[in-house]
Amino acid sequence: MARIAGVDIPDNKMLKIGLTYIYGIGTTMASEVCQKLSLSPVKRFKELNEEEISKINSLLDSYSIEGRLKRQIQDNIQRLIRVSCYRGTRHRVGLPVRGQRTRSNARTRKGPRKTVANKKIAPAPK
Question: Which of 7, 8, 50, 118 has the smallest set of CB atoms within 10 Å of its CB?
Fold first, then answer.
């Protein structure tokens, strides 16, 4: 297994697909990395030598990926919470942030249903 940016990538994966195992790298960025290093995107990881792997590692050091990217995202969320903007309060309360409806959906953010005693649910409009 090749280890790139702290992530183990299976040997039988193609270069373009294997790079997407790294958090923050999608297929587009993986293609760019292959193009910048003039490596074939269909080459398997087991066919790479140590020099090529070190080139990939050194190029990816300039990108914000894995732990650095996750920390950046968390810092942005904490900043929103700290300034008490609308999005920050939605993050704090654990509700959807981007304007989705919450009356009938949003179970992923809200968690399992909490039953409220003596609450009648009105029938859905037809």
Answer: 118
